Model the fold of this input.
Amino acid sequence: MRTSSFFGQLRSAYASEIDDMTFDSEGKNVLRQRLTARRKELPFLRQMMELSPEMVSVVFHQGFRFKNPALIEHVLSLESDEFPAWDTLSDSIVLEPWARQLADELCKEPMGEWLLTVAAGLEYLFAKPERASAKDDSQDEEDDDREKDGDGNLDGEDEDEKDARLREEAGQDWMVEQGFDRKD
Done:
């Protein structure tokens, strides 16, 4: 599966958003409660659709079932201005009843259908192990420039370390975008 640079960049930000919501300061899993609270904030979150679609898309976490994976994988190869109309996808993507209500509300917005497509793509990628998916072209070029060690790992890094580093970098990039200083 080839992933466009648009989805390639948002994938780690979406995963970081879910990770940030999963545990509280005491280490308790509070994802369900935080998702419920975030879903109630949808009227406010709508204004962030274009600038931070991963932060709005998270309200649909676990709200999609994919009847035609090949179709969503095709969408994942497209850039954000190339998406098909939502109604052409809706027969292949089933929304949970609670998500259908959110989608109906969101579709009243000019970019609502676009965001639903983004949310479906991000949720599909989130559920799919990163190692099994193809990297976007820019990542392939970056990997070609790096040397592999005897075990085939890049620079001696195992996949879990690499995933953690990429999530950390994406989180720091997002914080910088929000006006905070980069953590060294």
The radius of gyration is 17 Å. Confidence is low (pLDDT under 50) at residues 131-154. Residues 146-177 form one domain. The chain has two domains: 5-131, 146-177.
